[in-house]
Design brief:
523 residues; mainly alpha; 0% strand; globular
Length: 523
């Protein structure tokens, strides 16, 4: 009996191995370009010590391994769990029960999101617990709104127009320090823990409906969950009196030898192991409670989900340790060195180049892109989404650098940007609206908060700017530009489909005319 179980488990892991290899290869392709760019900059433009270069290299290896394992884990555990809850939720029939469960899920998962901890630690004027609870409640409320939208078949673009109109009005009544943090919180909240789970809930709920708009309505949960934190933090800014506090840059560990590098990672690894454990435990608890109530998963499925949680845990520990210990210090030094050169205009093209490649290293991006490809039956390919998001984030980082150099208020970019995105949402196919606004939240993940934000902070400090008003805001810009880029792709798709339909119609008319001529000649 024991031998039989052993062979069954062995066969299971042998089936998982090829998928892990595939995910790791995808991670390598995503992380390698940004690694090469930073190392090239360290050779030709900045003086990066050998120790820090080695830390960056080790961090990149951990990113590749961690991202591959995380993607596999999310596919095995987070997605089936989210879809299962999404399928069961509408069966509750009672709207108060659906709203209560959605709010609870959104709040618990957001509190556990590692990206939110990173943002809270970097805001000196607001206690961590205040900003974490504010953001978590905001996500909880708007996840409930998002679930109700799918059930009640409310048009996403109309809802987004109302919500962002409120955001734009509120932005004129809050202090500048709150403004950038508020917009940043919307992007940071939808991180690697939250995104796969929330997206899967949307797919599950929509599958129960089964109507022609179900596929397009499966997107939009991440979009609405991203609005919640922005509104919550802006409202907090209207009423909360901040404590006096200046931004304090994180200490950069001095490394000279291989032993120093190993020690730096060894010291921090247990910290991230504990942090991720705290993040994953609430979702495991949700799975256990859900399984007890629904009895949805059979023995093999339970084993698959359990193994998936293991991969998710190990992958996130490696990823967060690699990006925080290996990438974040290099981001700060890179920003300092580039801003200290005589050719400050180089910050814009270099920032754009980094932005183009860094978005591919976001762990949740590949999950979103593969899900889009699956739901749309290949109409929107993962490759097209990757290219589109890369262009969008490239523009956003270039704009962030321009903003730091010139001191332009984030309002002058964010507000026109959202107005353009919302106007476009009335003209693109419905499915592209959900995809666009979801992708904005997903693009601004841990790579943005732990590499791009320190990069901008380093530039801002060297140029003597205000970190709270000038450097913060890069996450918000990264969350904004994909909204426009993906909808442009949607307009191109609509134009292409119209041309195809027009060509088909002309062919039909031509065939009909030929038939008429033949009938006349026969007569």
């Amino acid at each position: 009996m024991i031998l039989k179980k052993y062979h069954r488990v062995k066969k299971f892991f042998e089936g998982v191995h090829p998928t892990l290899k595939q995910k790791t290869n995808e991670s390598l392709a995503a992380v390698l370009p940004i690694t090469i760019i930073v190392l090239a900059l360290s050779v030709f433009l900045i003086s990066l010590s050998v120790g820090l270069a080695m830390m960056f290299f080790v961090g990149a290896i951990m990113l590749i391994a961690g991202m591959g394992m995380f993607q596999l884990g999310a596919e095995m555990a987070m997605t089936p769990l989210g879809e299962g809850i999404g399928v069961q939720l509408p069966k509750a029939k009672s709207l108060p029960v659906i709203i209560g469960i959605s709010f609870l899920l959104g709040t618990i998962i957001t509190i556990a999101e590692p990206d939110l901890q990173v943002l809270a630690n970097q805001v000196p004027s607001i206690p961590n617990i205040v900003i974490i609870l504010t953001v978590a409640i905001g996500v909880g409320i708007f996840l409930a709104v998002a679930v109700l939208r799918i059930i009640k078949k409310i048009r996403l673009s109309n809802l987004l127009m109302i919500l962002y109109a409120v955001v734009i009005v509120l932005s004129f009544f809050v202090p500048q320090e709150f403004l950038a943090v508020g917009f940043d919180s919307g992007g940071v909240t939808t991180g690697p823990i939250t995104v796969p789970f929330i997206m899967a809930i949307g797919v599950g709920i929509s599958s129960v409906r089964g109507d022609k708009n179900a596929a397009s309505d499966s997107f939009g949960l991440v979009a609405l969950s991203s609005v919640g934190p922005i509104l919550a933090v802006l409202l907090l800014g209207c009423f909360y009196r901040t404590k006096e506090g200046a931004y304090a840059a994180a200490d950069i560990t001095e490394v000279n030898t291989v032993r120093d590098v190993v020690h730096a990672f060894a010291v921090e690894l247990p910290h991230y192991a504990e942090e991720v454990f705290i993040s994953v435990i609430p979702i495991v608890a949700v799975f256990v409670i859900f399984q007890i109530i629904s009895r949805r998963y059979q023995r093999r499925q339970k084993l698959r989900v359990a193994v998936g949680f293991g991969y998710t845990y190990i992958g996130l520990v490696l990823f967060l340790c690699g990006v925080n210990v290996g990438f974040a210090p290099v981001g700060t030094i890179l920003g300092n060195e580039l801003a200290g050169s005589d050719e400050k205009w180089l910050l814009i093209p270099i920032g754009s180049l980094i932005g183009y490649f860094i978005v591919k290293a976001e762990p949740a991006i590949q999950i979103l892109n593969h899900q889009i490809q699956t739901v749309t039956n290949g109409v929107v390919s993962a490759q097209a989404m990757n290219r589109c998001l890369s262009i969008g984030v490239s523009v956003s980082v270039g704009l962030a650098m321009l903003r730091i150099i010139t001191g332009i208020s984030i309002q002058w970019i964010i507000i026109p940007g959202y107005i353009i995105a919302l106007i476009m949402s009335k003209f693109v196919p419905k499915i592209f609206v959900g995809i666009a606004f979801d992708s904005g939240g997903v693009a601004s993940g841990p790579m943005t908060s732990t590499f791009l934000l320190p990069l901008c902070i380093g530039v801002c400090e060297m140029l003597g700017g205000n970190v709270m008003t000038d450097a913060f805001g890069v996450v918000a810009l990264v969350a904004l530009t994909p909204l426009i880029a993906v909808q442009i792709m949607g307009l191109a798709y609509r134009y292409r489909m119209a041309k195809i339909q027009s060509a088909v119609a002309e062919d039909v008319i031509s065939v009909a005319d030929d038939d008429d001529i033949i009938e006349i000649e026969e007569a």
